[in-house]
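Reminder to self: tokens first, then the designed residues, so the page reads top to bottom the way the pipeline ran.
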């Protein structure tokens, strides 16, 4: 980037820009993760955000190999870190470098917000389930509480079960009374017949005596 910015100028610009966006960047520190080791130009270990200028003047291409670069890009795609890497083959002015860095940090912030929303969504999905379980337990306890008085009511209604038996007894007594009534009428009729026969015999005896 000799036509626009030197590595030092570019790193100074990026350090100010990252700091303005709230990052605490340490300059020229050793990065040692994922089996990759190199000296990174700027790194916020807490936020896991940094930048690296690749130039031939500091032999940066030998420090960060192509294999190491691919490993770090794979980790970045998994959301495990965010690295803003500029190669000297890209000729950028200070304004262009600043605009590109701002776009990069905007993407980092958007990804962080998306992760926060996912976490909040998973928590919201978990909490209603716990509430519903508590509600089910409360419903079960209420149902159990309501069933107990119901059992008492059923026990109170048990004497009422004798009413059908009482009706049967009354029905039987009425039938018996009807039968006895019918028997009395028959007996009365029989007595009437006996009296009539006696009277007929007396009349026959009187007539024979007169003769």
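Designed residues (211 positions):
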């Amino acid at each position: 980037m000799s036509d626009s910015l030197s590595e030092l100028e570019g790193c100074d610009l990026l350090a100010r820009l990252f700091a303005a966006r709230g990052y605490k960047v340490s300059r020229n520190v050793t990065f040692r993760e994922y089996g990759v080791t190199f000296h990174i130009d700027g790194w916020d270990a807490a936020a896991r955000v940094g930048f690296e200028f690749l130039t031939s003047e500091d032999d940066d291409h030998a420090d960060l190999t192509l294999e190491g670069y691919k490993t770090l890009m794979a980790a970045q795609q998994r959301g495990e870190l965010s690295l803003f890497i500029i190669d000297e083959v890209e000729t950028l002015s200070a304004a262009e470098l600043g605009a590109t860095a701002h776009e990069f940090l905007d993407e980092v912030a958007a990804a962080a917000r998306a992760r926060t929303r996912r976490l909040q969504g998973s928590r919201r999905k978990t909490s209603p389930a716990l509430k519903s379980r508590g509600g089910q337990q409360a419903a079960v306890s209420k149902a159990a509480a309501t069933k107990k008085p119901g059992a008492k009511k059923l026990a109170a209604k048990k004497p009422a079960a004798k009413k059908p038996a009482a009706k049967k007894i009354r029905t039987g007594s009425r039938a018996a009374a009807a039968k006895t009534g019918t028997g009395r009428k028959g007996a009365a009729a029989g007595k009437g017949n006996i009296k009539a026969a006696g009277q007929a015999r007396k009349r026959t005896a009187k007539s024979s005596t007169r003769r």
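Strands lie at 26-33, 36-44, 49-54, 82-87.
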